[in-house]
Amino acid sequence: MANRADGRIYSHMKEMLTKTTAAAAALLAVATGSPALAGAADGDIVQVEVLDGGMTPRGTHLGALRITLQPGWKTYWRAPGDAGIPPSFSWRGARNVRSLSITWPSPEVFLTSGYRTIGYHDQLVLPVEITPETPGKPVRLKGRMQLGVCRDVCVPAELMFDHQLDSSAGRHPAIAAALASRPWSAKEAGVRKASCSLQPSQYGMKVTARISMPSAGGEEVAVIEPGNPKLYAGETTSRREGGQLVAETEFLPTDGKPYAIDRSQLRITVLGKNHAVDIQGCSAG
Asked: Which domain holds residue 81?
């Protein structure tokens, strides 16, 4: 897994995180009248450890990254909102890993000085399921996680981890709780239909999703992710029209070039008071 291309990608992610962090901190400082904090978070603010969850019935290894924050600090979901900082990962140095998948627990919605962000406070447990390259051989989970942590201001943090997973470990309650708090699937939430219409805008593409589903409770916040790293999604607005939730956003290219949008790759997350819903793809409409 470790190669020069991975190193270049990691360096690029680090540069982009630094720029995004500075911009987010500056925005927050303007909104609150507080000075932006320079530098990076230290180990007293945020720490990471790898948890063992043993083997799954499918023959994969289950582990988790547990991120612990000092009281009052928060970090962000994969789609962090207006002024949030998206986390990124590098798995350089991992061994016997053919593929891995991360399960994100349902996040919270924060409103700070008029900016909506999405993330977690106090602690975040990210379950990681690993398919080994060679079954029966040890799996080493090694890498770095780059993330933003915020209180009155935002600062970047880089967390390094290196752990050989214990295949004989039993069920870990923290991993089980994180898996249980994942968003409901469309089927579990009773989603009857999700359709998306596309309309060119001045700089990108406006996306309108119409989702036939029961309420997730309270004020529903929808997030539409493009499924294409070359596209950036603006803030999603949402409203109820009877039995439908209507969500609208705009996709903008990160490099100014036009890109086709594949509706099957769109991911819509609805965050409600009672539960969250994860909808994979939508039909034309």
From this structure: 4-180
Do 63 and 51 touch, CB atoms closer than 8 A? yes
Whole-structure pTM value: 0.83
Give me the CATH number covering residue 56: 2.60.40.1250
Nearest to 108 by CA among 181, 32, 172: 181
Distance CA 173, CA 51 (A): 10
What type of residue is 276? A
Task: Give the pLDDT band of residue 41 (cuts 50, 70, 90).
Answer: low
Residue whose structure tokens are 């089927």:
187
Give the CATH number for residue 241.
Answer: 2.60.40
Number of neighbours of residue 225 by Cβ within 10 angstroms: 17
Nearest Cα to Cα of residue 270 among 256, 280, 259, 261: 280
Q: Are residues 255 and 148 in the same domain?
A: no
Structure tokens at 25: 């901190």
Q: Over the stretch 91-140, which tens digit does the pLDDT of each residue have?
A: 999 999 999 999 999 999 998 778 889 999 999 999 999 999 999 999 99
Q: Which two tokens stand for residue 190?
A: 């009773």
Residues 95 and 147 occupy one common structural domain: yes
For residues 64 and 123, is the Cβ–Cβ distance under 8 A?
A: no
